[in-house]
Amino acid sequence: MNIEKRKPELLIPAGDLETLKIAVMYGADAIYIGGDMYGLRAKARNFSMNDMRKGIAFAHDYGKKVYVTSNITAHNRDLAGIRAYFRELMAFGKDKPDALIISDPGVFMIAKEEAPDIDIHISTQANNTNYATFKFWYNHGATRVVSARELSLDEIAELRQNIPEDMEIETFVHGAMCIAYSGRCLLSNYFTGRDANLGECTHSCRWKYHIVEEKRPGEFLPIEENERGTYIFNSKDLCMVEYIPELVNAGINSFKVEGRMKTALYVATVAGTYRRAIDDYFTDPKLYEKNKPAYMEEVSKGVNRQFTTGFFFGKPNHKDQIYEKNTYEKAYTYLGTIIGVREGMYCLEQKNKFFVGEEIEVIRPGSEAINVKVLRITDEDGNDMESCPHPKQIIYIDVGIILYPYDILRRRELD
């Protein structure tokens, strides 16, 4: 088979309009987003209907697609609202979503009735672990199914051989791993009353746990041989940037990155790295092999919990867990994204404090990071400042080079 015909889509998350634009500019082929309701990231900023329309129009202008998550496990009380929601999306006209991501069969049927011109993708929440399930959804009108994260590459390859050629497989290749099967978790609801399957997960899998023996209440027994307890459900993050050939050969159509609650810096770093890796491989596999260390170095600059290959090469073991802590590795801090220029000074909304004289980095689409020094900072009125202490303050900077819209500023943190 001609390798060019099998080039996968790079599917990137976005939690708001700013991040969607970054995903588009840094190499996504498609972006998945959530509205204010009916997705599984209720704590994400998410999109108002107005921002959703703007975001889809922006992506379409660049030839990119946008998929909208509607993958809650719906209750009776949700159905009327879901029906109205799909009607609103259809009313976007030429800038309606390219697909809806759904897990609930009832929501699926409503989508077919109210949004017949929008493709339906079946969420990983639907436990899609075999080719019979894929064919079931295909026969009911789905164009794509997201494979369960518990599948190996061999299982996905077998699945590919047993489903229609025009049916698409979407697979997570990067990001946080859920402890529950296909993300269908009950821990959060049990402990806090916030249902992960309705988008309100408290990430209770990242908490510290001890054992308590039934007849000795209050006596906490360490699970490991120390007194600190252990994070027994705390998985490392998935990262498959070193295995692009294996993913392609398995027949995966869309490489999906997790992270609708992540920053624009994270999205730019991960999207840009996977874009380069995929393009390098399809240009020349030898080029891809040569650049593997650079991919890992760059993707590690995004916030992460260390990396694992998940289930792709067999079942995970103790090496794929982090038992000592539940915090992220954070190599870089997000300072802001360039949004304009005035009299040779470049405008951004400050995300984290930085100072005149600091060494920082500029990243931009399709380019290596550029080391610069902050030469000047002013407020909106042109008053000089030694630092920018107020988050979301609009400031202007000079770093000695020309900057462009969507350039991102970041600062390396000390080890």
What's the β-strand tally? 20
The end-to-end distance, rounded to whole angstroms, is 46 Å
Largest sheet: 8 strands, parallel, barrel
Record the strand order, biggest sheet: 1-2-3-4-5-6-7-11
Q: Roughly what is the average pLDDT, rounded to an integer?
A: 87
How many separate helices? 10
Global shape: globular
The structure class reads: alpha/beta
Provide the succession of SSEs. Answer: EHEHEHEHEHEHEHEEEHEHHEEEEEEEEE
Which radius of gyration do the C-alpha atoms yield? 22 Å
Helix content: 25-40%
User: How much beta, percentage-wise?
Assistant: 15-25%
> Which residues form runs of ≥5 with pLDDT under 50?
225-229
Task: Explain what this protein looks like in three dimensions.
This protein has an 8-stranded parallel beta barrel with strand order 1-2-3-4-5-6-7-11, surrounded by 5 helices. It has an 8-stranded antiparallel β-sheet with strand order 16-15-20-13-14-19-17-18, covered by helices on one side. The protein has a two-stranded antiparallel ribbon with strand order 8-9. It has 10 helices and 20 strands. It has helices at residues 17-25, 49-61, 76-90, 105-114, 131-139, 153-161, 187-192, 244-249, 264-283, 285-299; strands at residues 9-13, 30-34, 65-69, 99-102, 119-122, 144-146, 168-175, 211-212, 220-221, 237-239, 254-257, 307-308, 332-342, 345-349, 359-363, 370-373, 376-378, 384-385, 394-398, 408-412. It has 415 residues and is an alpha/beta fold. It starts with 8 loop residues before the first strand and ends with a strand. The longest helix has 20 residues, at 264-283.
